[in-house]
Design goal:
25% strand; single chain; 7 helices; seven-stranded mixed sheet; globular; binds nickel (II) ion; alpha+beta; four-stranded antiparallel sheet
Length: 276
């Protein structure tokens, strides 16, 4: 896909997929680095969660991924040349498990004050209908944030099991299948969901949340973010450097501090006692 068609397709549909980003060998190497980190931290659940939630701040290989020139070029077609990574999530669905994500719009509970955001979702294993790939409703990004309800449903991987409270027509949804190394990009207002993994492999994807530096937190908080392209003329976030090395103590401490700032924002107004 050319960069022109990427921008046009994103504007029309609210997403672009599939995009060729990495070779299969590069995707395999990233997965191996992640899984080596998981093995090294297997008996330290706190650090394991920090690793999965902040891969580009803990592993240099993922710091390079979010700065990959081709990826930056594609994201810049939509958001312009100045880019921050506001956060990342690693969505791992273990083989034959019921974990899923209900229909939602990403920007509902993130506390950001505008919509100059997009997610690049990079597949590190096959994302297929059987393994629980994402499903997108084309054109739904043109809607404002619609009401969501907190379900705290078991096996829902979202922070509060949030679910769009209006009817979503399943027939209008597109399954976004990706081979390892391919990625998709989607708008923060796009209706999307994903099903359980009925395959025999782990379904692993990293969701990279890019924003423009003009974006700010509604409450005036100043969480940490990474400048990955161009300049930040706003100072709405505390900029953090790439990781000093692999699984470094100082890098864990930094993302721990970031998560302490973000947690009350992500759960604002939720009844946390309902969490299972
Ligand atoms: Ni989402």
């Amino acid at each position: 896909m050319t960069t022109t068609s990427i921008a046009a397709s994103y504007e029309r549909d609210g997403f672009v997929s599939p995009i060729e980003l990495l070779s299969e060998a590069e995707a395999v190497a990233l997965r191996a680095d992640l899984e080596a980190g998981e093995a090294e931290l297997a008996d330290q659940p706190d650090k394991l969660a920090l690793l999965r939630g902040n891969l580009p701040q803990i592993l240099p290989s993922f710091a390079a991924l979010v700065r990959q020139p081709r990826l930056i070029d594609m994201v810049s077609q939509v958001l312009g040349p100045d880019l921050l990574v506001w956060g990342t999530n690693t969505f791992i669905k273990e083989p034959r498990t019921p974990n899923h994500l209900s229909w939602h719009q990403d920007l509902t509970y993130w506390g950001l004050d505008d919509e100059q955001e997009l997610t690049a979702w990079v597949a590190l294993s096959p994302a297929t209908t059987a393994s629980g790939c994402m499903r997108f409703v084309a054109g739904s990004h043109a809607r404002p944030i619609v009401p969501h309800v907190d379900t705290f449903a078991q096996n829902n991987m979202l922070t509060r099991g949030q679910e769009i409270a209006v009817d979503v027509d399943e027939a209008e949804a597109t399954d976004v299948e990706l081979r390892p190394g391919q990625c998709s990009m989607h708008h923060g207002h796009l209706f999307h969901a994903s099903g359980p993994n009925s395959s025999d492999d782990r379904r692993i994807g990293i969701a990279v949340r890019y924003i423009t530096p003009a974006m700010a937190m509604q409450g005036g908080e100043r969480p940490l973010a990474s400048l990955v392209s161009g300049e930040d003329r706003y100072g709405h976030f505390e900029l953090m450097p790439p990781p000093a090395g692999r699984l470094q103590e100082a890098d864990f401490a930094r993302v721990r501090r970031h998560q302490a700032i973000m947690r009350p924002i992500l759960f604002q107004g939720a009844d946390e006692s309902k969490r299972g």
